User: What shape does this take?
Amino acid sequence: MENLAKNLIDIGRAPSVKVWQAPSGTEHSRQLWAAELHYLDGLWYIYYAASDGNNATHRMYVLESIGQDPTGPYRFKGRIAAATDRWAIDGTVLEPGDGRRYFVWSGWDGDENIQQNLYIAPMQNPWTLGSADPNTLRMEAEQANLKNVTTRRASQASGGEAVAPRDQAGSFLEFHFEMPRSGTYQLDIRYASGAGRDSTHEMSVNGGLQTLRYPPSGWNNFQTLQVFVPLVAGFNRIRFIHGAGGAELDVIEVKTIGSDRVVLSMPEAEFERLGGPAYINEGPQVLMRNGKIHIIYSASASWSDDYNLAQLSFQGGDLLNRNRWVKRGSVFARTAAVFAPGHASFTKSPDGQEMIYHAARYQGAGWDRDVRAQPFTWDAADNPVFGRPYSLVDQLPWPSGSLVH
Assistant: This one.
């Protein structure tokens, strides 16, 4: 449905138009969530999450307009997914202004609802993400060269076995492999850690050292840590050396950057882990000013009073490099009178910038929510300033005139 409101305060009261209806009996027939409308390459596109009725099957899908009318009709273009096709919701489009385009969404690392991360991937066109890399290397940890390594069976590990350089001084795993060309590559490291705190390894890549930190996941809940590493054409050697705590390694994958999804954010900070598990990063929205790029997202359990907004700010360089984004939070959180403010979107009125978000109708209401709007401003460094969420008894001036598109 699309709402035909001509000004901000009429949202929810103006007539709605059905632009498309999902056919019954398909993988995208039910639980349609968080639709977004974007105008790309001369047509309108609607991105939405849907399932077959089982939440665990949620994926992102795309509709394309037939003509220039945003109210339709629309044709179904299909699923939009990275090479690692996992549970996905809340997709949005990031256009940094240099001709490139990226898809940002919330998803699971594997097939279980342990936590929701934010992911990013380059877009080939409005309905296709970057293609898989035929040169991807997948290496099982039990196939590595091992020294003083404790192994254990684990049903969640690929091949039924997990291998870890832990609990013994001087232990390590070492992989030898060849690459067709030199460059910086994405390393996906599948691990499990039940240490209760961050664990570490020292990783040696062709002799150069860096420290890896593994957030706790539990011994039977394998997650993926992503790092970018420089590799050379021909022979390469990567060694994982025992550090602090304990982390078990399962599979190591080497990929070309952009050929698969990249983690932008995981719920690691305290303000992202309230009310869980499951721990949540979701609802990403792009907010830009004077060339500075921010992603505002929702953190912590959506059913709790502590659902809140956090911020990622791009520092320049490679958009796909998680280390080039700085996290801030909470930037918009509960008060004594407002609970669970989150899942914001942004628009303009003649008066300035406006944010639209939902909040719980009362303390402990969970998903019983209403939609609210209020203005926000910017500081001298082009960071958004949201202030506090206003309660329903606070008096705010209405934004004047019609929306500016």
Summary: The CA atoms of residues 273 and 300 lie 5 Å apart. DSSP finds no helices and 30 strands in the chain. The chain has a mean pLDDT of 90.
